[in-house]
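Hello, quick one for you while I still have it in my head. Could you read through the record and tell me how the tokens relate to the sequence? No rush at all, and the record is pasted right below.
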Amino acid sequence: MSMDQLISKIVATKNPTVVGLDPKLDYVPNYIKEKIFEKYGNTLKAAGKALLKFNIGLIDELYDIVPAIKPQVAYYEMYGYEGLKALAKTIEYAKEKGLYVIIDGKRNDIGTTMDAYATAHLGLTDVNGEKISAFQGDCLTVNGYLGTDGISPLLKVCNEFDKSIFVLVKTSNPSSGELQDKLIEDHHVYEVMGEMCETWGQDSIGKYGYSSVGAVVGATYPEQLKELREKLPHTFFLVPGYGAQGGGANDVKYAFDQNGLGAIVNSSRGIMCAYKNGDFTEKEYSKAAKLEALRMREDITSVINEIKF
């Protein structure tokens, strides 16, 4: 199972964190941008190349201390097809370095449209009989609020190609409660969605006890995080909200099981832009990212049980 691959990498690195590679040109050091824009001008092509070079520098410093990266598709789409080329090449490079790749697309549709999303990010595209991986993702974030019709096409692809998904359950944003905290009879909407994740994943439970259907549960709601960990024993968590959004180690600790597993915690800007927050030069941006990633690992592992199978 794909989630077993992620868990194995977490145990190998003793690190339950994922780096969100969500770049904007504002994050890219000037010395990188100046050379590229001098050559290609103020173009989307230049922007895409700058993002890719930035990402490669980060991956080179991080691949042996973190188990995974999580590129958010929107940050690449905003630069058009050149941005999507940067996304594809970033994923390709990360895979060459042995990293697990969670594509953060939050896709949501039904039928053949969801088939297409699943094929693009997790499966193989048929080009005149040749089967080609378009984006090479190991996992995709999805919105489950269309119900089973929107998830079934993904499950088929996950089973066929050994991939996984993370379904939005209790998100980290301040207004999430406007819908997710509403009651359906005596259950909150996020509880119902979490229970659906358990159901959707019941036929794909791996050797470490977690299925290929994970849940996105934010660090900014630690009580709900604790509640859902108890209620969803086979659902692995992707935990946003650490760092820039206000969540800390004592918030995310509730996501983990007795073996220090059960969750992976995301940090994006905190790692990508670490060079802006200390005594670093722009050319040390990747070194600063590595130091912040190590700090984050120590912060989280200090409050959870030892990571082991």
Observations:
- Residues 44-62 form the longest helix (19 residues).
- The chain has a mean pLDDT of 97.
- The domain at 2-17+100-301 is CATH 3.20.20.70 (TIM Barrel).
- The chain has one domain: 2-17+100-301.
